[in-house]
Amino acid sequence: MGHHAFWGFCLLACLSVTPLVEGVQRGAKCPEEAIYYRRYCYQLVDMSFTWDAAETECQHLRPGAHLATLRTAAEERIVSSHIRRSSTATDAWIGMHAVRTPKKLIWEWIDGTTYTPGSLLWDNRAPSTSLSTAECISVTNIHIPGNAARWIQRTCATALPFICKFRSSF
């Protein structure tokens, strides 16, 4: 009975920890200051740059690095939690911006894919665009107790810390 109880406890412990390490893979390599999630490293750069300059800095940080695309709530939660533990930053650029087309402005990720409306991560407003300024997206509320981090649009000329995303090395 003691032997079976021990293994039952071990199984229960493993199952309760699994959501905390979802996506973590043995042998994945990220820099010490970055966090790993599903084949990618996410690194906060705690220096303030405009959105365009932040993208350039990401590209210089690591081969293939860009401002982070956060496509799921789980991905955003893991990255925001890492920022809370490792920095005092309250806002950080991510890789979404408004792009001008001949007829309108559309929201697009840095990799060229169009944003699909309906994210629960917006700051209670639908994204809008301005004809007078370039608009980009940051994660905000990172350190406000009891509040979930949210996306907010800002002029791209605002200087903020930023989150870079790049493939991990195995």
Provide a brief overview of the structure:
Helices cover 24% and strands 29% of the residues.
How does this structure look, described?
The chain has a single domain (35-167), classed as Mannose-Binding Protein A, Chain A (Roll). The chain is 24% helix and 29% strand. The protein starts with a helix and ends with a strand. With 170 residues, the protein is of the alpha+beta class. Strands 1-2-8-3 form a four-stranded antiparallel sheet, with helices on both faces.
Q: How many beta-strand segments?
A: 8
Q: Helix count, per DSSP?
A: 3
Question: What's the CATH class label?
Answer: Alpha Beta
CATH superfamily descriptor: Mannose-Binding Protein A, subunit A
Distance between the termini: 41 Å
Low-confidence stretches: 5-27
CATH architecture: Roll
Query: What fold name stands as the CATH topology?
Result: Mannose-Binding Protein A, Chain A
- State the oligomer: single chain
- Secondary-structure element order, N to C: HEEHEHEEEEE
**How many distinct folded domains?**
1
Beta content comes to: 25-35%
Largest sheet: 4 strands, antiparallel
The radius of gyration computed from the alpha-carbon positions, rounded to a whole number of angstroms, is 18 Å
Strand order of the largest sheet: 1-2-8-3
Mean pLDDT score:
78
Structural class: alpha+beta
Shape: globular
What proportion of the residues is helical, as a percent range? 10-25%
Keywords: Calcium, Disulfide bond, Lectin, Secreted, Signal
Main location: secreted
GO cellular component, one term: extracellular region
GO molecular function: carbohydrate binding
